[in-house]
Amino acid sequence: GAYCCGENEDNYGNPIHYTSLSCKSNAYQNCPGGTSAGKCCDNCTASAVEGCTDDDMCPCGTYPYYGGGYCCRQNKDNYDNSLTYLSTSCKGGDWLACPAGTAAGSCCDESPDDAPLCVNCPGGTTPYGNGAYCCGENEDNYGNPIHYTSLSCKSNAYQNCPGGTSAGKCCDNCTASAVEGCTDDDMCPCGTYPYYGGGYCCRQNKDNYDNSLTYLSTSCKGGDWLACPAGTAAGSCCDESPDDAPLCVNCPGGTTPYGNGAYCCGE
Hints:
By secondary structure, the protein is mainly β. It is 0% helix and 15% strand. The protein has no helices and 13 strands. The protein has strands at residues 3-5, 28-30, 63-65, 70-72, 95-97, 126-128, 133-135, 158-160, 193-195, 200-202, 225-227, 256-258, 263-265. A three-stranded antiparallel sheet has the order 3-4-5, with no helix packed on it. A three-stranded antiparallel sheet has the order 6-7-8, with no helix packed on it. It has a three-stranded antiparallel sheet with strand order 9-10-11, with no helix packed on it. The chain is elongated, with a radius of gyration of 27 Å. The termini are far apart.
């Protein structure tokens, strides 16, 4: 409110705002009331937000992000995702510090109750690392198909999730089907398959011999596995096999089952 700008942008091409620090082409004049803060009126009207006060809100027309430590003058991040309270970037670097401080939570979360909890990876990339990163390849460093729970990205062709680099920041668009007798707490992550009696989950539906994976399989194709989130003891992740799933698999070609079907002999 110390100056009046005759352009719609600042020197960086960002929309002009009451808290902006520059005016495009220096096309400004002093506020008629004086050149200190607040001399010219801010006609923005902030809506009341439940749980927030005037002391812990971002300035009117700006949006809290980075956990409430900063305020963005635009409602977008650097990837054109809608800004959220947990976003880690502000479009065009058009930010200011939260007036109450830069610690997490200094400015309150003004997001509506239905605000998204995660953002999408940029086009042409796939979320991995449980949603902390986005991979520009279809495989991990071991040649396995990329998956939300994968831990690497081929040729390190990755970028940080626009919403932040912790688990869940980028959305997993996989949709798991309900399985009778299983709950969300004892199922393998969506798109993976329980094996080894439910202690582990395989990102591929094959064992090392290209047999279809079963709950009792003892290998996962390409070593592409993760521990069952509920624990590695037998039964930790439930059996999602359909009722008509085969109870046994065939030995690889040229071998014969023995040891009551526990092993395959090549002689």
